Automatic annotation (TrEMBL):
InterPro entries xrefs: DNA/RNA_pol_sf, RT_dom
Protein name: LINE-1 retrotransposable element orf2 protein
UniProt xrefs under SUPFAM superfamilies: DNA/RNA polymerases (SSF56672)
Span of domain Reverse transcriptase: 1-161
Membrane-spanning residues: none
Taxonomy, superkingdom: Eukaryota
PROSITE patterns linked: RT_POL (PS50878)
């Protein structure tokens, strides 16, 4: 941000957060992306063995429901979960690359990420609007909901002299 001020560049930032992000990751989408990324079959087998063979039943007063497969969610507390979520997030954020990036210190930057927190970055209001629309639409396609209560937008504006 300091560098953007030095080079007289506006920065539009969107601090996004997903509601129950780790609970909503679709296994099908996740493994499709891992396959597209050419992840070695042995390595891919580890999360597949954890997630593709899960069934659950609901215990009731008069017994249990039928067992049903679990098709979404990554395990909270598992060391792989943040990485698996970031891979899912990558599916969403790859689509904002088409809208351009901000060039700072010779690097093209489209976003900043940590676990389920994402900050898309734009250099103009028009691009910023396109990015927000894209993130919202792509998140919805994957069953992820943006948490409006935890979101905010910020404009770091250059000083005109």
């Amino acid at each position: 941000m300091e560098r953007s001020m030095e080079v007289q560049m506006d920065l539009y930032l969107f601090f996004s957060d997903y509601s129950k992000a780790f609970d909503k990751v679709k296994h099908e989408d996740l493994f499709k992306l891992l396959t597209q990324l050419s992840i070695d079959a042995k390595v891919l087998g580890i999360p597949q063995n954890l997630y593709l063979v899960q069934d659950a039943a609901i215990r009731k007063d008069n017994g249990c429901s039928e067992f049903e497969p679990i098709r979404r969610g990554v395990r909270q507390g598992c060391v792989m979960s943040p990485d698996l979520f970031n891979i899912c997030s990558e599916m969403i954020l790859r689509n904002i690359n088409d809208h351009g990036s901000v060039k700072l210190n010779g690097h093209n930057i489209t976003d900043l990420r940590c676990a389920d927190d994402t900050v898309p970055i734009a250099g103009s209001e028009n691009i910023f609007t396109l990015i927000l629309d894209t993130v919202s639409a792509e998140s919805g396609k994957r069953g992820l909901e943006l948490n409006i209560k935890k979101e905010s937008a910020c404009l770091y504006q250059r000083k005109d002299t």
